[in-house]
Amino acid sequence: MVNAAFTEIREAAFAHIPSLQFLYVPVLASRCVPMFPPCADAFPFSLQPPQLQQVHTDRGQRLRWPLTPPVPVCGWGWGRGNMGGDTGTRMGTQGRAGDMGMGMETQEWGWRRGEGMGRVGGSEEPVPHATISSHPRFIENNDIQALSKATFRGLKSLTHLSLANNNLQTLPRDLFKPLDILSDLDLRGNTLACDCQIKWLVEWLESTNTTVPAVFCSSPGHFEGQRIQDLVLGDFQCITTDFVVHQVLPFQSVSAEPFTYASDLYVALAQPGASSCAILKWDYVERKLRDFDHIPAHSAVHCKPIVAQEQLYVVVAQLFGGSYIYRWDTSVDKFIKIQDIDSQKIRKPNDIEAFQIEGEWYFVIADSSKAGSTSLYRLNQNGFYSHQALHAWHRDTDVEYVENDGKPRLIIASSSQAPVIYQWNRAQKQFAPQGEVGEMLDVQMVKHFRVKRDQFLCLSRYIGDSKVVRWEGQRFVELQTLPSRGSMVMQPFSVGQRQYLALGSDFSFTHVYLWEEEKQKFAKFQELLVQAPRAFRSVLAADVQLLLAPSFKAKTMVYRHVVVDLSL
């Protein structure tokens, strides 16, 4: 620290650098630096860095630490600079890199020969007062590995600073912000990593008038040996995302279906343990989900809301006791049962999908019993009625509606055969079998996603590996295999321009993957602690992007998607 006019160095000003080994005592403009008891009354301060070994004065003297007896030290700094000479002599201008080649002249130096700071065990006595002036001083040639953001707080008059030849790998953001009139800065001889933590320095170098000699990157590999001054902000990829816990719902659930009705956001959750379909409403003030209503359902596996023709319906699928359709009655503000679903066709429902084709509303129920049949229902003026029996006696586990090349399709996953593709016949207004998705048995769930013009399927398996396949012409081609032992759910979802994939497991953490466009595959991104997840649903609540994670064995989790700037 050089050319300063400090009037005070406060307590613990250098407590952030415990690895300091050498202390240089310069000539500053303060009358006394209260390091020791003689100054304690005016400036209570104690500086005893555990690694400090020597103190340097402007006369080239070196003293061991701690100093005994305590002395008043007037004007001081850090470093191992090439300083020397007697009082009244001019010091050489040819210094090392850290000295920045500056001439320095001592004046009225406070420590006189025979009267200055004596070596431990020597006969020299401390001088009680000193006359001081300002000179360049340095913090260099130490083993400083890290600095606190507050290291230079309050040093507004500092003009020259050398941190050369240390072991600094990064610098805290806005480290030099307190130094209003800093004119020279030396960072040479450090091993700075040019990552997101140093991005602020690149921005600062572009705008500052401070003279800074060339500093080179030591890492990462693609920046190694490159001048930091030559980097541009666009070289840094510092924006990432994270899923953080937003809310914990104190109940178990096996499905989650968000929907919007009358401009409000709701979520329907199947709770077999609580024998109900819970309807939660988003509170825009508290920014949380709150209880709204409950539909009785003794063994609910899926509660599917459908908003059609300004009416709200909820299809309640139960393992036992039949399945039903409810409608929200605005006159009494409650759900009323309007229809039973044929229990001879739907014996053991497992999934429900709702969609529109040519302006008409349909829903399809996947049936997982040996004697049941996956069935399609259509909405007319009086309710939903059976439209087509699709896939009988195959123990279907999941169904997905996909529009591909302008053609509506259903893909039905089964425990007994590979997923089957049905294509909509516009003339007959029914689905007709089209083929299968590869040779992949025992698929628990099938979900689709789109990236640009490409259509993909995610096929999850409880035993074996799950797969990602891509539609090419008239068939799906395998693209990626993901380990997924114990998986009951594999859900793709997008947030903005990012495409994610949540792969749940009954035996380990849920893995969230992020789509890499260049490699055309998913890469591991994050782990979430969700016990036995049965679904993942992404929903935008005002300005909050949520990820709902129903759990069969524990509390239902609600995560929030956040954007993180690693350079801050």
Automatic annotation (TrEMBL):
Question: One matching Pfam family, short form?
Answer: LRR_8
- Ranges for domain LRRCT come to 190-239
Q: Which UniProt keywords apply?
A: Glycoprotein, Leucine-rich repeat, Repeat, Secreted, Signal
Q: Name one GO biological process term.
A: regulation of exocytosis
Q: Where in the cell is it found?
A: Secreted
Major localization class: secreted
Q: What is this protein called?
A: Leucine rich repeat LGI family member 3
Q: Which organism is it from?
A: Amazona collaria
